[in-house]
Write a structure and sequence with these properties.
The chain has helices at about 20-30, 35-45, 55-65, 70-75, 75-80, 90-100, 150-165, 190-200, 215-220, 235-240, 255-265, 265-280; strands at about 5-10, 15, 50, 105-110, 120-130, 130-140, 145, 175-185, 185-190, 200-205. The protein is an alpha/beta fold and about 280 residues long. The protein has 3 domains: about 5-75; about 80-220, 3-Layer(aba) Sandwich (Trna Endonuclease, Chain: A, domain 1), CATH 3.40.1350.10; about 225-280, DNA polymerase, domain 1 (Orthogonal Bundle), CATH 1.10.150. The strands form 3 sheets. The protein has a 5-stranded mixed beta sheet with strand order 4-5-6-8-10. The chain is globular, with a radius of gyration of 21 Å. The N and C termini lie far apart (about 50 Å).
Length: about 280
Amino acid sequence: MVNIPYVINQRGERELLSVKKVYRAAKNVGASNQLARDIASRIEAEAIDGMTTSDIYKKVRALLHKETPASAMRFSLKEAMRKMGPAGFYFEKFIGAVYKEAGYSVKINQTIAGKCIKDYEIDFVANKQDALKIGECKYRNQPGNRIDMYVALANHARFLDIQSGVFLNKKEFQGLNAKSVLVTNTKFSGHAIKYSKCMGVELLGWRYPEGDGLERLIDKHQLYPITILPSLNKQTAEKFASKDIMLAKDIINVRANTLSRQLGVPSVQLTKLINQAKTLLGS
């Protein structure tokens, strides 16, 4: 009988190594059936009791990179989302870019008055046709962190106060179907999901809605954050964000010399990033 080792997940819990999860993870980012099987077999052979899932992730990414760099970058999506700055401001900009790609008119970091509180700081307001989304972004940079019910409660209470105020009476919003939206780069707790569904709050996060979560939305429409590019450093990421360049696709058709003048970043470095973005997007 084969002894299956226990590994330590991102929440510090022990769980049995799942070779099927490793296989599916490799397949989901574009690895062939054979490559995914080879990677799963390699991880199974080398895994030891007490190994962390973070160590397994690094091994899988390295094995993917040898055969298909684009898949290795896609495999790094969750990590790329956590690189969006400790304050989460860049995550708000990124989500704004995602909604713009979907055809919404978006304003981020808005101050909106409710009936009781006159200065709510709202992360984004997005409208398209008859829809108006009042959005709250919850960025987390710690692996395993979840958005709990108390965050969902506070989000809905704020929306109710805004509904009772004068904001939705503005001419530009009259007749629109206003909806509260809670977005995160991590997962929601079961209670947060149950409460928000009951109250009609739209949720978008990692693997939620099921089968159509943030990671699927990003993959489907190639909305990869600029932070997914392996050669991007923190200083350059901040310069990109200052120019509202939040998506990898934003740079694939721009000349390195042009970007260099705009950002004050060496063109050699930008050429490398542009080539990585082209590899990722198949351009």
